[in-house]
Write a structure and sequence with these properties.
293 residues, mainly alpha, three-stranded antiparallel beta sheet, two-stranded antiparallel sheet, 9 helices, 62% helix, membrane, transmembrane, ABC-type transporter activity
């Protein structure tokens, strides 16, 4: 069961972190809003060496909000939420006081998890509304197909965040001391981020032998459903201009299609099922622990 009155009181202890991290996450979207196209594009100028290439809004979001920046922000945010809602109350004896009320231990934990989940859902929905409000206005190639795939991207990302938070919840609840749990959770996250950074480097440098490092991070469970041809496809053969003489304008890369059903069909249920299992196991650790005033 969930005590909604108690859950409402829990929001007060994380109100400031919610505001701050909502601002930071919104800021991670701002670079994508500076592009005129969702696709990578090349601005062809009549000035010698005046051509400019850009990765496009879709790729930028994959690097920032859906990538390293967003995942790192959510890791810090989840640690702060778990500490404020659970560890701080345990350390100060508040949790034992709540156990003296008619609420069961399971109800207290469910109410805290409800607070965490509603917080994540609310932030994600708010940022989803921002994306669907600004991107159609700021980009010239936003379409209904892209909108559907972007929605799928956000849903998959939210499941990844829930999984990431559940891992932190499991680790922190396993250890009696908050400092030990937070340290271990931080070490695990550094490993995840480290493997993901190696993968990004390998992808950009075309080091195929290092591409398998991505599987050392849970970020490998999130794949962008927005597929575009690389910028190199716009240049044609060496020494031969792919554009008509005197051409000036913007050329975007080809949209290669949306999500691969074979990937999302197993990745999304896996993330959701694993997150539920980790949350339940963390609850079991807490229920078996003794608390004192």
């Amino acid at each position: 069961m969930i005590n909604f009155k108690y859950a409402k009181s829990q929001f007060k202890s994380i109100k400031i972190p919610i505001i701050l991290f909502s601002i930071f996450l919104f800021a991670s979207l701002i670079p994508a809003f500076t592009y005129k196209y969702m696709a990578p594009y090349l601005s062809v100028s009549d000035i010698p060496n005046g051509n400019r290439q850009s990765q496009g809004a879709a790729n930028m979001m994959d690097y920032t909000y859906f990538g390293l920046v967003g995942c790192a922000l959510y890791f810090v945010f989840s640690i702060i939420m778990i500490y404020r809602l659970l560890n701080r109350e345990v350390d100060k004896g508040y949790f034992a006081v709540w156990l003296a009320t008619p609420m069961s231990r399971r109800t207290i934990l469910n109410s805290k998890l409800f607070t965490i989940l509603i917080t994540i859902f609310s932030i994600q929905i708010a940022l989803l509304i921002v994306q669907f409000t600004l991107l159609p206005i700021l980009t010239k190639d936003f379409s209904a197909e892209i909108a559907g795939n972007l929605l799928l991207f956000n849903i998959s990302y939210m499941l990844l965040i829930l999984l990431w938070v559940s891992i932190n919840w499991l680790i922190i609840t396993y250890f009696d001391k908050a400092t030990v749990g937070i340290s271990v959770a931080t070490a695990v996250t550094i490993v995840f981020i480290g493997f993901y950074m190696i993968f990004i480097f390998a992808r950009e440098a075309n080091f195929d032998k290092l591409k398998y490092f991505r599987f050392g991070s849970i970020r490998s469970l999130l794949n962008s459903p927005l597929h575009y041809a690389p910028l190199s496809s716009l240049y044609g053969e060496p020494g031969i201009s792919p554009f008509p003489p005197g051409f000036v304008g913007v050329v975007t890369t080809e949209y290669l299609g949306g999500a691969k059903a074979s990937e999302f069909a197993w990745q999304m249920p896996l993330m959701l099922g694993t997150a539920i299992g980790f949350y339940a196991l963390g609850d079991w650790f807490i229920c078996k622990r003794n608390f004192f005033l």
